[in-house]
Amino acid sequence: MCIVYVETTTKNDPPAKKRYPSDVEDAEWTFVLPYLVLMSLEAKQRKHELREIFNAVRYVVRTGVAWRYLPDSFPPWAAVYQQWHRWIAAGVFEDIVDDLRELLRVKAGKEKQPTAVIYDAQTLQGTIESGERAGFDGYKMKRGSKVHIAVDTLGYLLALVVTPADKQERQQVAELSRQVQDVTGQNVSLAWVDQGYTGEATADAAKEQGIELVVVKLPQAKKGFVLLPRRWVVERSFAWKSRFRRLVRDYERLAETLAAFHYLAFACIMLTSLLGTTLWSA
């Protein structure tokens, strides 16, 4: 982990005025700026303030607004859209989430890298934009995409895979496990999962990456809501991201864009946890 803080304000500078609840706080901006600067802030070709572009992207993921419907107070939507995809190509949001997770774990009195994780998946209803890559989830009775995630025991994102909704959870264990070990330096040895991950082949796929799968089963006589050991953590993570309206359905033509919006949402959530800022209300 390598974090470089850039001083963007002085003690005498007034706080930046927020026009929208989703606008980035000064402390948050100081943290994320080094990740977002892909060229010099004084570059001649830069026509718009980078902070305003970042505010616009946060506005999109929080409100779910279409790019062309961005308010005029932001830079032109095309400029925001282009910079957004430059950030995606550079992997900046994955880097932000990885560093924030380490800092939050240390803040909570844990080691930087987890030894145990939780896997789960969520099916998102598709739209016209995402229809070409959609699949039908017969269990949820939805046509769309499935977002497979791995989180640590605090609920912070480690890995993510987007597939058509007809792809089963157990089929993504190998890729999730590979990503988890890549970002943790082969530190994870245990993953809690639900009954959708049963099967010898699934266990072997995880074992190849040095991870043991532990299936948390529902009580045989289930009545009403049951809080499952360990697995409630990932359900809470899904609840966190549900506050971001761009993520309630799959509005993206590309799976990579949907994944990037998830990393951006978790970056926003984790920034508020680390810095004590306010996660904007509904």
List keywords for this structure.
single chain; 282 residues; alpha/beta; 38% helix
At a glance:
The chain has 282 residues and is α/β, with parallel strands linked by helices. Helices cover 38% and strands 15% of the residues.
Mean pLDDT value: 89
Radius of gyration: 20 Å
Largest sheet: 7 strands, mixed
Order of helices and strands: HHHHEEEEHEHEHEH
What's the tally of helices? 8
Based on secondary structure, the structural category is alpha/beta
Measure the end-to-end span: 33 Å
Helix content: 25-40%
Extended strand count: 7
Give a topology summary.
Layout: H1 26-36, H2 50-63, H3 77-90, H4 92-107, E1 116-126, E2 135-137, E3 142-152, E4 157-164, H5 173-184, E5 190-193, H6 200-207, E6 212-215, H7 232-241, E7 249-250, H8 255-275
Parallel strand pairs: 1-5, 1-7, 5-6
Antiparallel strand pairs: 1-3, 2-3, 3-4
Descriptive notes:
- With 282 residues, this protein is an alpha/beta fold.
- 38% of the residues lie in helices and 15% in strands.
- It contains eight helices and seven strands, in the order H-H-H-H-E-E-E-E-H-E-H-E-H-E-H.
- The chain has helices spanning 26-36, 50-63, 77-90, 92-107, 173-184, 200-207, 232-241, 255-275; strands spanning 116-126, 135-137, 142-152, 157-164, 190-193, 212-215, 249-250.
- Strands 1, 2, 3, 4, 5, 6 and 7 form a seven-stranded mixed sheet that branches.
- Strand 5 (190-193), helix 6 and strand 6 form a beta-alpha-beta unit.
- Helix 2 (50-63) crosses helix 3 and helix 5 packs parallel to helix 6 (200-207).
- The longest helix has 21 residues, at 255-275.
